[in-house]
Amino acid sequence: MPTTVEVVEGESASVTCVAKGKPRPHYSWIRSNNNQNLASSDRSTVNENTGVLTITRVSKEDNGEIRCMARNAAGTMEKSVNLVVVIKPQVMDIKNISVAEKRESKLVCQATGNPLPTITFWKIGSNKEMVAGLQPTDDRVVVDQRMVDGAAEATLIINPLMKSDDGLYTCIARNKGGEARKNGHLTVEYSPSFANTPIKEAWSWNKIPVNLTCLAESIPNATIEWRLNER
């Protein structure tokens, strides 16, 4: 029987105790911190004949030492097992941000879990996830990973920003228990441009209406005004 068993929060887990004796021993499982017989727990069952302890809906409270007790008419033997509850990642926060083109942007994601998860980012529509540190295919982009106030934190830094960086980014947190995802949007602001919609010359005759169209691309949307001879 192993001395440490990892179990995942929210899932079911089984631990088996094996002992030899004549007559065949009967088993019980005890929680060490309060001497609770786990057969009496509403989330645990103990097979006295096989020594199998089954825990349903594993929770944080199950973390800690438990003892297997094997008994027969000749005596008692016990062995301790340390239950380590793996807590699935949970992304706490990722905020939408809006930053001007050619500036530095920082998209921050925090996540909890046990063990602390690793965090990375994926731009929706791209071929692969980003890696920790400087990106091998784009030296403008860095993923900085650290621990802050007991939580895992990753910052996606892009400097300088380009229009093509605008989009939806997924924060991905992973540990032994699984993964969690949450999206945040990076908006790249840029000044008005007529590059794709140039103003064309228009001809008309006296007292005949003429339509002129002006379309400017920008984020945020531009305010458009018309002037005649600089007035």
From TrEMBL:
Keywords: Disulfide bond, Immunoglobulin domain. GO terms for molecular function: axon guidance receptor activity. One of its GO terms (cellular component) is neuronal cell body. One of its GO terms (biological process) is synapse organization. This is Ig-like domain-containing protein. Residues 1-82, 89-187, 192-231 form the Ig-like domain. Coiled coil: none annotated. It holds the Pfam family I-set.
